[in-house]
Amino acid sequence: MRTTTRTTKSRGKPSAKPRKGAKGNPKVQEFGEGNYQATRDYDRAATAFARSGAVEPAAKAAAPRTRQEAVEMARAEAEGRARSKGEDPALHLKDFFMDVSEP
């Protein structure tokens, strides 16, 4: 992870210059959501976690422990769904997603 330091000269304002790409290559500029290396790293980590067998214990650990907690979680989910534009119709297309369970 790359960190930046602010100097008194910048007065706490972040630099508007684009960051250099992976391994300091000045020709490859990455901006915020366009950080392709970070996306690849996340995808690899998420796939490794899914294949690790730790998903079930993590899901059990995240389950509500009390009735009140369950109600709060349901309320938060309902609030999030109220802002949604709806489910992506592509989710229901047969064979739309590839199976990543096999290496």
Overview of the structural elements:
The protein is mainly alpha-helical. It has 3 helices and 2 strands. The relative contact order is 0.06.
Q: Which SSEs are present, and which pair or pack?
A:
Blueprint: E1 19-20, E2 29-30, H1 36-52, H2 55-62, H3 67-82
Individual helix count: 3
SS-derived structural category = mainly alpha
Q: Strand-and-helix sequence, N→C?
A: EEHHH
Distance between the termini: 28 Å
Q: Report the strand count.
A: 2
Secondary structure: helix percent: 25-40%
User: Main sheet?
Assistant: 2 strands, antiparallel
Low-confidence stretches: none
Estimated share of beta-strand residues: under 5%
Overall average pLDDT: 77
What is the C-alpha radius of gyration, as a whole number of Å?
21 Å
**Apparent shape:** extended
Which strand order do you get reading across the main beta sheet? 1-2
Quick overview of this protein structure:
It contains 3 helices and 2 strands. It is mainly alpha-helical and 103 residues long.
